[in-house]
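Entry 14. Structure prediction run on the chain below.
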Amino acid sequence: MSSKISQNQIKNWAIVLFFIGFAFMLAYNSIAGYHLKEISGISDDELGKKVKVCGIVESAQEVKSTMFLKLKEENSSKSINAIIFQKDQSTIDMELSEYNYSLLDLSNGDYICIEGRYEKYNGEAEIIVKRISEIECRGL
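Output returned:
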């Protein structure tokens, strides 16, 4: 009795495991993914949860290696603070490079979508940004 595994068996197992892994990733993303919200629609029910919001950059500044953004909802006066800590900036910059853009290029009037965790700090609503998933340069 031979205990060798043929190349066909290895290939078949690789294909099966690939599809199992892919199905797991899809299921995990739907469970743990970001939920698109309007800035005006975010409530305390979302505290600590992953959210995605889109808006217009009202201000962008870097203070002590931390990026502070203020996003305004389009056609509304509602806004929210967005914080990008130094540890996340290189990853976000790498993603923005696909748009030939960097965090330091963000300017007032740009339309962006951010993904992160909704939190409150000193009673102020904010999103701890992990990703900028969309950007449209409209700078004022």
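The CA atoms of residues 48 and 98 lie 29 Å apart.
Filed with the rest of this week's runs.
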